[in-house]
Amino acid sequence: MAYIQAGPQPLRDECPFCEAPKHPDEERLIVARGETAFVVLNLFPYNSGHLLVCPYRHIGTYDQATPEEVAEIGALTQTGMRVLREVSRCDGFNLGMNQGEVAGAGVAAHLHQHIVPRWATDANFFPIIAKTKALPQLLDDIREAVANAWPR
Fold first, then answer.
1. CATH H superfamily, domain 16-145
2. Is 114 one of the annotated active-site residues of the chain?
3. pTM for the whole thing?
4. Which of 83, 127, 133, 135 falls 20 to 30 Å from 1 in CA-CA distance?
5. Cross-referenced PANTHER family, in alphabetical order (predicted)?
6. What spatial distance separates the first Cα and last Cα of the chain, rounded to whole Å?
């Protein structure tokens, strides 16, 4: 519903990945914060539990990241996978970074790593017939479960 209600330009004028850390975690769906990067639920998920790992710095591509940012993005990605496996019992993952609009990045100006949980049975007729994906969990519920399972 958030995607539908947002209209054709859901990202508007502000970078959502620069704005999110300025607000309470629950309000912006942040799951965990590190020193140089943070983990947030994707507001427009491909699957329930779809996480994004973002550096705090506003950089567009992976080659602009510092060694510290690269290391923390990797560590947060690994932890995110472990937590999602525990919380959602997923069977696998899609990981990736789309860099640049031409590559399909929805927020091309701010680097982010996708962690998409996958299940052997996560496809049904909806995407084929209606070009729609049914997501059975509310984002707030997923955020709470993942944040509570995140190691401290």
1. HIT-like (3.30.428.10)
2. no
3. 0.82
4. 83
5. AP-4-A PHOSPHORYLASE (PTHR42997:SF1), HIT FAMILY HYDROLASE (PTHR42997)
6. 32
